[in-house]
């Protein structure tokens, strides 16, 4: 079975703190994603990575950065957490690679981790 | 971007009842998935079904790509089926667009 593991289920941080959310997948998937989910706004894509050290912005990248140094691991970084970043964060992975900008296609089935509920006070 | 509409927004069922959830989308797609979000927030894959029909136990799904809709059928519902069901689609790129979901409550 595909397993996507997120490092923390629940986090409480203070405004201005640097926050790391870690995600590891065990299926050798090329693509990894970070979404956030908010009531009334649904799931929104923050960042996407289609290969090691490669990333593309999603719909709402402002205030976030990402790191993908190894194929199995994709980290989401909040450089200076703010209260409006209180949310449920969901990591996902899929097979299928190639940059959209380079004409690649994503066709794989998406698998999600358990989610990380972040509260910023 | 592509629009995804799910209906109904809410569904209350008695245990043992059958139901149909619908997903309409505004453009052609090469990826369509159904997910169930459990009470703890995890999105569980139900079906990867850009076209055709699939069945898994009491659940089945049909996608008619040419008419831009997909249906999820739940038969003999159980309380563990409660949660939010999401449809997500992607045209010819990486970005899945999610519908707003159908909240299903199954009462014993």
Question: What class would the helix/strand composition of chain B place it in?
Answer: mainly beta
Give the proportion of residues in helices of chain B: under 10%
Structural class of chain A: mainly beta
Shape of chain B: globular
How many E strands of chain A?
A: 11
**How many H/I helical runs of chain B?**
0
- Evaluate the radius of gyration of chain A: 14 Å
Tell me about the largest β-sheet of chain A: 7 strands, mixed
* SSE string of chain B: EEEEEEEEEEE
Q: Would you list the SSEs of chain A in sequence order as H and E?
A: EEEEEEEEEEE
Contiguous runs where pLDDT drops below 50 for at least 5 residues of chain B: none
Strand % of chain A is over 45%
Mean pLDDT over the full residue set of chain B:
94
Oligomer status: heterodimer
Distance between the termini of chain A: 37 Å
Number of helices of chain A: 0
**Helix content range of chain A:** under 10%
Written account of the structure:
The complex is a heterodimer of chains A (121) and B (108). Chain A contains no helices and eleven strands. Chain A has strands spanning 4-6, 10-13, 19-25, 31-38, 42-51, 54-57, 65-70, 73-78, 87-94, 111-112, 116-120. In chain A, the strands form two sheets. In chain A, strands 2, 4, 5, 6, 9, 10 and 11 form a seven-stranded mixed sheet that branches. In chain A, strands 1-3-8-7 form a four-stranded antiparallel sheet, with no helix packed on it. In chain A, β5 and β6 form a beta hairpin. The N and C termini of chain A lie far apart (37 Å). Residues 98-104 of chain A have low confidence and may be disordered. With 108 residues, chain B is mainly β. Helix content of chain B is 0%, strand content 57%. In chain B, the strands form two sheets. In chain B, strands 2, 4, 5, 9, 10 and 11 form a six-stranded mixed sheet that branches. Chain B has a five-stranded antiparallel sheet with strand order 1-3-8-7-6, with no helix packed on it. In chain B, a hairpin with a 6-residue loop joins β9 (83-90) and β10 (97-98). The model of chain B has no long low-confidence stretch (mean pLDDT 94). The A-B interface holds A 31, 37, 42-43, 45, 48, 50, 56, 58, 88, 90, 92, 96, 100, 105-115, 117 and B 30-31, 33, 35, 40-45, 48, 86, 88, 90, 92-96, 98-101.
């Amino acid at each position: 079975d595909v397993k996507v593991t997120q490092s923390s289920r629940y986090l409480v941080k203070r405004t201005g703190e640097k926050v790391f959310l870690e995600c590891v997948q065990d299926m050798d998937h090329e693509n990894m994603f970070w979404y956030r989910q908010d009531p009334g706004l649904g799931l929104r894509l923050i960042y996407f990575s289609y290969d090691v050290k490669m990333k593309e912005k999603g719909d709402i990248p402002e205030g976030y950065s990402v790191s993908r140094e190894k194929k199995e691991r994709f980290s989401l970084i909040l450089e200076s957490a703010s209260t409006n970043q209180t949310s449920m964060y969901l990591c996902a992975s899929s097979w299928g690679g190639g940059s959209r900008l380079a004409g690649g296609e994503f066709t794989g089935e998406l698998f999600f981790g358990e989610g990380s509920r972040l509260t910023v006070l | 971007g592509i629009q995804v509409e799910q209906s109904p927004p809410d569904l209350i069922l008695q245990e043992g009842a059958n139901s149909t959830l619908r997903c309409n989308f505004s453009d052609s797609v090469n990826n369509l998935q159904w997910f169930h979000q459990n009470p703890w927030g995890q999105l569980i894959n139900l079906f990867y079904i850009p076209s055709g029909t699939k069945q898994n136990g009491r659940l089945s799904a049909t996608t008619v790509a040419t008419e831009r809709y997909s249906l999820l059928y739940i038969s003999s519902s159980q309380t563990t089926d409660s949660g939010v069901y999401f449809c997500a689609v992607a045209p010819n790129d990486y970005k899945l667009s999610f519908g707003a979901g159908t909240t299903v409550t199954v009462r014993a």
